[in-house]
Specification:
alpha/beta; 218 residues; 6-stranded parallel beta sheet; 10 helices
């Protein structure tokens, strides 16, 4: 007998129009059933723990609880949910950190609807998916150099997460809350990442991020 079971999905995206658009696309495809939608990471965690969906689509910059911290927490619970992180902007480092956190896919919102559906099908089937613009094969290539060519490659996962929130204008106290860290620990990561990037103030970090097309801040 043909298996007609649909893959259940929870969507965590701050913008209602984007969230509802993705939900409509998923439902229209016929292979997916959206069982929950929310606009922040804290609500997403509660919803994921309660619903245990097959898939979770999470915006990289979801408020209240950082997306990669959300992925890490749910994975630590032993949940079988497979995660796809979506982002307005991104690069190799961002995709790599998403995968390191436990995500199974990283998709740029600049792609079309077919790309999103392809990503969902691949992630649901157990594969890893990264938007083609980011050149998937390069995600796992580690150049054999004494010093990485890209200064972002020198940042640890936590340093990179703090960096991402800083360049979006999030204050230290809120960063600590989103990453489940103490403010003192955030200050330590902040000092370390600035030293590694050789940038010593927030405007400098924002300028660096804008040059790399990594932030929505204009």
């Amino acid at each position: 007998m043909l298996n007609t079971r649909k893959n259940t999905i929870v969507l965590a995206e701050e913008l209602a129009m984007v969230r509802e658009g993705i939900a409509g696309l998923c439902e229209a495809n016929g292979s997916f059933q959206v069982t929950g939608q929310c606009a922040d990471g804290v609500t997403a965690q509660e919803m994921l723990e309660r619903l245990r969906p097959d898939l979770a689509v999470v915006d990289f910059n979801i408020p209240k609880l950082f997306s990669l911290e959300l992925v890490r927490r749910i994975k630590e619970l032993g949940a079988a949910t497979r995660f796809m992180v979506i982002a307005s902007k991104g690069d190799r480092k961002m995709a790599l950190e998403a995968l390191r956190s436990g995500a199974n896919g990283f998709v740029l919102k600049s792609g079309n609807a077919d790309h999103l559906l392809e990503a969902l099908h691949q992630v649901a089937s157990g594969s890893i998916y990264v938007s083609s613009e980011l050149q998937f094969e390069r995600i796992f290539l580690t150049p054999r150099r004494a010093e990485p060519e890209d200064p972002l490659e020198t940042l640890s996962s936590r340093e990179y997460q703090v960096f991402q929130l800083m360049i979006e204008g999030i204050r230290a106290k809120e960063i600590a809350s989103r990453l489940n860290l103490s403010p003192k620990t955030v200050d330590t990561y902040r000092a370390s990442l600035m030293r590694k990037l050789d940038i010593h103030d927030v405007p400098g970090l924002v300028k660096f991020a804008i040059q790399r097309d990594l932030t929505s801040v204009a």
